[in-house]
Amino acid sequence: MRTLILSDLHLGCGPCPGIFAGSQALGGLLSELGAGPLRVVLNGDTFDYWAQVDHRDGAARVTQALLEDPVNAELLTRLGEVVRAGGALVVRGGEHDRDLVAASARARVLAALKLVEAQSAHVTWHRLLTPSVLDVGAARLIVARGGRGHEAARRLAELLLNPLRRQYGVGFADLLRPDYVASVLAALAVNPTAAKLVLRQLADVGWHRLRSDCERALRLAETLAAAGLSAREREVFGLALDPEVPLGDAFDTHGALELARLKLFRHSLGRRPETDADGLRSIAGAEWHALRALARRRHASAAVIGHSHIAGWRSADGLTVADTGTWTWRVETPEASASVASWRETMASWQDVARVGLSRAHAVAARARFTAAWIEPRPAGQGAHMALVEWRPGHGLVVLREQELARAH
User: Fold this and answer.
1) CATH number of 40's domain
2) Which of 25, 71, 250, 390 could crosslink 240 through cysteines, CB 3.0-4.6 Å?
3) What are the pLDDT digits (tens) for 172-210?
């Protein structure tokens, strides 16, 4: 069966606009792929439970809220049409939607797909930690997640990043995921006063242990030193964040606070992975070796991964690997070597834009790439053709990389 693999849609809901950018693009992509049975694989983080007001309300209630969002409801309806046309849907759990293991949550998703009971058998659910093995034609490929987030990342999202973006409009830090340390550091630099208030709220409700978890994850003292802050700048910035210090007491007439914020902002955004001329990241080192070992064990000639939010590709030594990237907005930032004036202008633009998705969002360079893995079987069981593709509104489907896959032995 023809197979389309997507990952990291991060469908969200609530008062803060979601970061999913592909509500129209996905419909256009599915239409261009034409008639005939199609298998769609959602490779993790399809839903974003971490971004909700209080995921402790229970998986069923949060799932229902997610599905009542008009954008999400339309997308699920479109995927249901794929299944009703004789296709299939594979939903793999990710870090942000591991709550889908709950039967009540899955039941609500099936209801949103608008399938009758017999059709629901064509929707399968795969756990986060278990790679999926798919046969396309006579070729075999693995679908897995890449590097995984840790519980510390969830703490950072829940306790610091979520209130900063919801209550204080530091929304663009959310687009640096999956690097939650960089996200929170950027938010602290953009609005340390808001961070002070959030930390004060945590102290008020007695979450000292959870707060200390966040502090350990950030390693703030070491990070400020690595960002090049002087001793005076570290002191002033610490006072700006300290919930015990009244607002205004950290005021510095010599601009030490502004310089501290700028250095931290630049440091947190300057750790972007290297990409080639097409904007694709390299799949190398330990990541490549781990995928090769997994492919050998499963007798597969290809692997498709997600999680990084940056599309990637490598084909060598009998193995082809595609990272399908993300369907969320991503922010453009200056090069690490850019001038201080350029970085200062970027930080000011983050302060000016209240939230992701609002009309002033164009003031910050944000873009989305709608990338996916597309695998077609060759006739008579002669393997398959695999491509990393991108849907470009107004241009249609563009092949970024492609490779023939041999039949499994």
Assistant:
1) 3.60.21.10
2) 250
3) 888 888 888 899 999 999 999 888 888 888 776 666 666
